[in-house]
Amino acid sequence: MQRITALFSAALLAAGLMTATAHAQEGTANTEQPQASAPAQDFDDGQLEQFADASQEIAAVSQDYTQRLQEAENEEAQQEVRMEANEKMVEIVEDSGLDVDTFNAIGQAIQQDPELMQRVQEMAQSS
Fold first, then answer.
1. Residue 40: exposed, middle, or buried by beta-carbon count in 10 A (0-12, 13-18, 19+)?
2. CB 3.0–4.6 Å: which of 62, 76, 87, 92 could bond 10 by disulfide?
3. Residue 126: Cβ within 10 Å count
4. Prediction pTM value
5. Which residues are within 8 A (CB) of 93 and not within 5 positions of it... i.e. 6 or more apart?
6. Residue 76: φ, ψ to 5°
């Protein structure tokens, strides 16, 4: 159970990285975006399973890129690693069938709803 929670923590951390990078890339053109905070009932089981699957893959990628980030020699190299990690994680989310906003919204919802977190953890364990 701790392993699954760690996977979700890594995935949510990665999702935060994706969001931060996406906002940085947008510049100041759209600085007042509301945070995604969709209620749990807005997500069907299919979306939750897609989230669980993507989270597991993102956790593995995050671990790999965290190591690479620590080995980066300077700020420029670290930024390149972050950008590459972000692109990979966005690709994983999109390949799962979700868009990044939905993935992040589910991530926020499971942080606020222990029952939803439990459902997603069970889905991750059975996949």
1. middle
2. 62
3. 8
4. 0.70
5. 18, 54, 58, 99, 100, 103
6. -65, -45
Q: Which two tokens stand for residue 102?
A: 């939905």
| Residue 32 DSSP one-character state | -
Q: For the chain, give every domain's residue range.
A: 2-14+45-126
Region of 30 on the Ramachandran plot (φ > 0 left; ψ -120 to 50 alpha; else beta): beta
Within 13 Å, how many C-alpha atoms sit on residue 126's CB side?
A: 9
Give the pLDDT score at 104. 93
Q: What is the largest CA-CA distance in the chain?
A: 45
Q: In a structure prediction context, what are the per-residue pLDDT tens digits for the chain, which is 127 residues long?
A: 455 555 565 555 555 555 554 444 444 444 444 444 444 458 999 999 999 999 999 999 999 999 999 999 999 999 999 999 999 999 999 999 999 999 999 999 999 999 999 999 998 888 7
74 contact partners, CB below 8 Å, separation of at least 6 = none
